[in-house]
């Protein structure tokens, strides 16, 4: 819970902050597709590209490391699964166990971990260089076509923004509950799985109940300030600038180049 | 004008009414304080002012608009601004300016017009320069002022405040009360819910509630005399009035329907001057 600042906006001085959030979201989507279709040549290209973006973004490696830390366990797990359970040419066979390490397993393991890390890095760069409110405004604009099929895009955007708004509230509430427990002699670092689960439940249940109460109050406060179905405007209106078109052009060229490289790889 | 006509409200059919047969009129620009013990229906009453609750029986009209008509709700919420007890529970934006702008966004005010109005609302409550700050990092008093700004930006005729000085230190309390008085001087109607009668000594009128009804409605001195005349479980007589009553018991010729410290000081001072002259 203390890592709730995972991927949160904290780069007020990043040049990427001035790029339209819609362009950034589209870039992440395109990058994700490219990452999943990657061949060895493309991997090198995307890695270089992302390294360049990290340099331009001025996001510190320490901050990026903090964003990647929570997924390290999953990445290792994925790597081991591929390493041990992929059929192919043997490198090493573990005696008496139905497990063998193959060249293909090693290759797949590295590929999957790279894909996973690249995706999370792209997502973290997006959230770290975009204030949550503009991210929500961008989502709303990008989802606008869904209005034709009566998807309440405006309400969806407000929902996302409220969910983001609750992050610091939850964090504060969790810390308060933790302190209250410690003040009454509670042990939060109990040993043993059952004890750990019990401790977690004793904090999570009141946390959820308090969240419901707060959600009720917040809904009343929103209604009292005129929130209802109907036309709304936003404080900051998104407008594409020359720089945004330049970034879009760069992205399209990069995507085109990776497609060419992909064919060459084949 | 705000009008309550025979208003009864029940949260569900199986529970007893929280408000029962309530009649009330609040003229434009009046400073009305509302006091009463916990659970007497104060918060339920003020939620009717903003059409957050609709009476189970009877009707509530805000400047002629019936809260029962859904089509009037947006206008009603522009006429009556509501500041809830806990400012943390009403923050909707990730920055102060986003939070203050929320009401105007809901009214579909064009984007380019919002920011100047946000700045104006913030400077009105003495918070110019706080636009980019995260609301969660503000002090209790600043959060409360930011929520008042978020309501003032909608240009309401009446401002409803539910225990606006709760959890505040003396400086924060003074700041908020000063702001309320200032808004009242500017002609805004104020409905101020509180447990501390001492902080509403300069209200035009104080309403005392008990068990879902109004048991007293009068000027601060009338309400003070009423509170001094009976046992009030859940309500405390004003500290100054209690002090004056003790002095009176000791033979001083003093009135006991006084709430503010300044008025109490004046009374004691003139009594001492009289005594000095006699001696």
Structure description:
The complex is a heterodimer of chains A (about 270) and B (about 280). In chain A, helix 1 (about 20-35) packs antiparallel against helix 5, helix 1 runs parallel beside helix 9 and helix 6 packs antiparallel against helix 7 (about 155-185). Chain A has a domain at about 15-150 and about 230-265. Chain A has helices at about 20-35, 40-55, 60-70, 70-85, 105-130, 130-145, 155-185, 195-225, 240-265; strands spanning about 90-95, 100. Helices cover about 70% and strands about 5% of the residues of chain A. The longest helix of chain A is centred in the last third of the chain and has 32 residues, at about 195-225. With about 270 residues, chain A is mainly alpha-helical. Chain A has a two-stranded antiparallel sheet with strand order 1-2. In chain A, about 20% of the residues are buried. The radius of gyration of chain A is 23 Å and the shape is flat. Helix content of chain B is about 40%, strand content about 20%. Chain B folds into two domains: about 1-235, Rossmann fold (3-Layer(aba) Sandwich), CATH 3.40.50.300; about 240-279, no CATH class. Chain B has about 280 residues and is an alpha/beta fold. In chain B, helix 3 crosses helix 4 (about 110-125), helix 3 (about 95-105) runs parallel beside helix 5 and helix 5 (about 140-150) runs parallel beside helix 6. In chain B, the strands form two sheets. In chain B, strands 6-7-8-3-9-10 form a six-stranded mixed β-sheet, sandwiched between helices. A four-stranded antiparallel β-sheet of chain B has the order 2-1-4-5, covered by helices on one side. Chain B has helices spanning about 40-50, 75-80, 95-105, 110-125, 140-150, 170-185, 220-230, 240-250, 260-279; strands at about 1-10, 20-25, 30-35, 55-60, 65, 80-85, 160, 190-195, 205-210, 215-220. The model of chain B has no long low-confidence stretch (mean pLDDT about 90). The radius of gyration of chain B is 21 Å and the shape is globular. Chain B has nine helices and ten strands. The interface of A and B includes residues 161, 169 and 224 of A.
């Amino acid at each position: 819970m203390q890592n709730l600042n995972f991927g949160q906006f904290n780069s007020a001085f990043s040049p990427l902050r001035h790029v339209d959030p819609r362009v950034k979201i589209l870039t992440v989507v395109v990058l994700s597709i490219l990452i999943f279709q990657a061949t060895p040549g493309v991997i090198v290209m995307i890695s270089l590209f992302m390294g360049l973006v990290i340099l331009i973004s001025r996001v510190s490696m320490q901050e990026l490391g903090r964003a990647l830390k929570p997924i390290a366990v999953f990445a290792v797990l994925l790597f081991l699964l591929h390493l041990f359970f992929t059929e192919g040419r043997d490198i090493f066979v573990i005696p008496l166990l139905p497990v063998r390490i193959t060249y293909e397993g090693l290759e797949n393991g590295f590929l999957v971990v790279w894909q996973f890390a690249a995706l999370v890095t792209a997502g973290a760069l997006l959230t770290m260089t975009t204030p949550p409110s503009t991210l929500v405004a961008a989502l709303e604009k990008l989802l606008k076509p869904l209005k034709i099929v009566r998807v309440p895009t405006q309400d969806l955007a407000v929902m996302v923004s409220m969910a983001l708004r609750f992050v610091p509230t939850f964090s504060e509430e969790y810390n308060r509950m933790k302190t209250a427990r410690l003040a009454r002699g509670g042990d939060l670092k109990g040993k043993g799985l059952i004890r750990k689960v019990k401790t977690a439940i004793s904090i999570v249940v009141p946390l959820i109940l308090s969240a419901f109460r707060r959600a009720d109050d917040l809904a009343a406060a929103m209604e009292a300030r005129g929130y209802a179905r109907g036309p709304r405007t936003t404080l900051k209106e998104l407008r594409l600038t020359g720089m945004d078109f330049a970034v879009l052009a760069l992205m399209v060229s990069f995507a085109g180049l990776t497609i060419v490289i992909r064919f060459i790889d084949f | 004008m705000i009008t309550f006509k025979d208003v009864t409200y029940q949260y569900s059919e199986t529970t007893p009414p929280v408000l029962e047969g309530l009649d009330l009129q609040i003229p434009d620009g009046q400073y009305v304080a509302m006091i009463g013990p916990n659970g007497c229906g104060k918060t339920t009453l003020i939620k009717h002012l903003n059409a957050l609750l609709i009476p189970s029986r009877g009707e509530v009209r805000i400047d002629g608009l019936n809260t029962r008509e859904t089509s009037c709700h947006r206008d009603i919420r522009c006429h009556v601004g509501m500041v809830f007890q806990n400012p943390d529970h009403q923050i909707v934006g990730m920055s102060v300016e986003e939070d203050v702008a929320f009401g105007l966004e809901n009214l579909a005010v064009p984007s380019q017009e919002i920011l100047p109005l946000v700045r104006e609302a913030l400077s009105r409550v003495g918070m110019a320069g706080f636009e980019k700050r995260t609301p969660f990092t503000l002090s209790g008093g600043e959060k409360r002022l930011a929520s008042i700004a978020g309501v003032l930006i909608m240009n309401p005729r009446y401002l409803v405040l539910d225990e606006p000085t709760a959890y505040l230190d003396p400086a924060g309390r003074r700041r908020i009360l000063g702001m309320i008085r200032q808004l009242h001087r500017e002609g805004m109607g104020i409905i101020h819910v509180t447990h501390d009668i001492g902080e509403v000594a300069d209200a035009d009128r104080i309403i005392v509630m008990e068990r879902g009804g109004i048991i007293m409605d009068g000027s601060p001195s009338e309400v003070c005399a009423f509170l001094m005349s009976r046992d009030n479980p859940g309500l405390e007589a004003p500290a100054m009035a209690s002090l004056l009553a003790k002095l009176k018991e000791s033979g001083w010729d003093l009135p006991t329907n006084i709430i503010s410290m300044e008025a109490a000081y004046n009374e004691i001072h003139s009594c001492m001057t009289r005594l000095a002259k006699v001696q």
